[in-house]
Design goal:
Largest sheet: 7 strands, parallel
Strand order of the largest sheet: 23-20-40-38-36-33-30
Number of domains: 3
Oligomer: single chain
Number of helices: 2
Number of strands: 41
Helix content: under 10%
Structural class: mainly beta
Strand content: 35-45%
Amino acid sequence: MQTFKQYSSHVFLSMLFVLTVFVAGCGNDDTITPPEGDNNATVSTTPAVLSTAPFQDDSNVSLNTNITAFFNKELDASTVNTTTFTLKNSATAVDGNVSYANKAMIFTPTADLSSGSHTATITTGVTDSEGNALATDYIWTFTTGSTSDSTAPTVVSTNPDTNDTNVTRNASVSALFNETLDPSTVTTTTFTLKNGTTAVTGAVSYESNTMIFNPTADLLANTKYDANITTGVKDLAGNALAANKTWSFTTGATTVSSLAPVNLGTAGSFVILAKTAITTTGTTAITGDIGVSPSALSDMTGFNETLVGTYATSDLVTGKIYAANMTPPTPTKMTTAVSDMQLAYTDAAGRTLPDFTELYAGDVSGKTLAPGLYKWGTNLSINTDVTISGSATDVWIFQIAQDLIVANGVKVTLAGGALAKNIFWQVAGGTGVSLGTTSEFKGVILAQKGIVVNTGATVKGRLLAQTAVTLNANAVTQP
């Protein structure tokens, strides 16, 4: 079994992530950035590697592993071959076969790997289904150990959970695994859904260690369904699931409402925006503009900034720094942005008819969260990894009456194409938000109070606080 980790991210490399959700590989990302402030802009991309297994600089990798690269979009399968995906042990080419499944290129060695350093290369000969080529060769290295992997993969959690009731009829069904699977084993044969003896028609996909069954049509109301994942599912070392994973749930009468994203207005031009202060210690890497208002530039500490007329710059910020006391028109710009931030908070807090109320009693640790409006009258705790699963057009709004507390080392993982820009955490608590050390967080935080990002934590999203934002050696990147 390969340890449950998030793998190297090509997308985040271009955003100066030093230590991020994924360990960075080599290459550049050609993602086209949406216009400033446009939270709903369509993002167009060339093919890009999202993650790899093994990941960049991984060590003690099992000798019997396959090598896999996961992409952001479907590829032209005819361009996936032993010419465009190669593996070397030092300077010696490794024999193997190359295949394609679930937006992943898979290199299967003919024999077990030798111990030592290996270099995998995917060339620009790879194109997507529209003929767009990978921008640059993607190269990463890892080191094998001296043993093989013989441990079966296991299911960490499911969504819906076993015996859940009142499940929304248009929800997808998913299972999160403890390690990376062989994408070619994730099919409509190995993941099925039935109503009694009647099979449900749907599509099966795989992202971020999660198998996802998306029914073609809404499920029947008030009906029991049985989900089954078979032992045909294998990890990258070829180890099969030890036994079929079967669980049941019962639908309710409703479908998830179609949520509109929260309108951030001009606050969407900032990756970090606060009213009283933004402070940082340690080596921080921020991608996007940051600003404070009505506070002054002196309330932004740790950036060693240089004033350039209407804004300032810093080696820690790939973007501009704004404060209320800078040369006009910056004061007006900042007043408007903060006003828009408050309006966005009010919008998120004012959404009615939640799809989920007091779900899991305010502790979503280890769960998979479907799109929808969530409401808690308590703190929201995330103590173990959580998955947010849905499509690129789905929206999540989490209304939290008290504080949002993310434990040390916890990862918020996106699956099914879900986008960080469509995830909104509205936090009303008197303390605010605490992201634990080395945690990996996704989404737009709208906090009535402060946001504390502890040592080594990373954020793919926006930090919008009505008091202060405190950083410590973090990577914060706009979605």
